[in-house]
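quick q for whoever's on today - can somebody do inverse folding on this one?? i tried earlier but teh output was garbage lol. tokens:
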């Protein structure tokens, strides 16, 4: 199965897809010094959220999928050099709405969990009319 969305995303910042199946994705990212917020190497949560969002979008895997909202929990810190993996599972959709559950792990430790509300639009979100 080919990735049909977010094709120009920077994999260094939002992770590289490893597995894509109907309603499922696994995306991996190794954190870098550019993601650190301090001298101890704590990675900014926005990068972990970006990884999870990327996994959610490709689990839906439609060219016009967009994020409508998210409920997330940051469970453990991530530091520079850690490899984190997001797994996303898209539930059954009603109309344009798709609910996607995402977990991010670092080894055996869950570091993030979230429920993403995605919408599959009839046309690209930036198209007018």
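ok took a stab at it. sequence:
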């Amino acid at each position: 199965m080919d990735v049909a969305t977010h094709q120009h995303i920077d994999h260094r910042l939002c992770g590289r897809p490893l597995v894509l199946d109907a309603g499922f994705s696994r995306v991996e990212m190794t954190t870098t010094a550019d993601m650190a917020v301090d001298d101890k190497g704590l990675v900014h949560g926005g990068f972990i959220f970006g990884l999870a969002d990327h996994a959610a979008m490709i689990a839906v895997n439609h060219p016009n999928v967009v994020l409508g909202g998210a409920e997330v929990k940051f469970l453990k810190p991530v530091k520079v050099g850690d490899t984190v993996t997001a797994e996303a599972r898209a539930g059954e959709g009603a109309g344009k709405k798709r609910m996607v559950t995402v977990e991010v792990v670092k080894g055996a430790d869950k570091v993030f969990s979230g429920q993403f509300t995605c919408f599959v639009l009839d046309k690209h979100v930036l198209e007018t009319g």
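fwiw Residues 11-120 form a domain with the Thiol Ester Dehydrase; Chain A fold (CATH 3.10.129.10). also The beta strands are 16-21, 24-30, 65-74, 83-90, 97-106, 109-120. so keep that in mind when u check it
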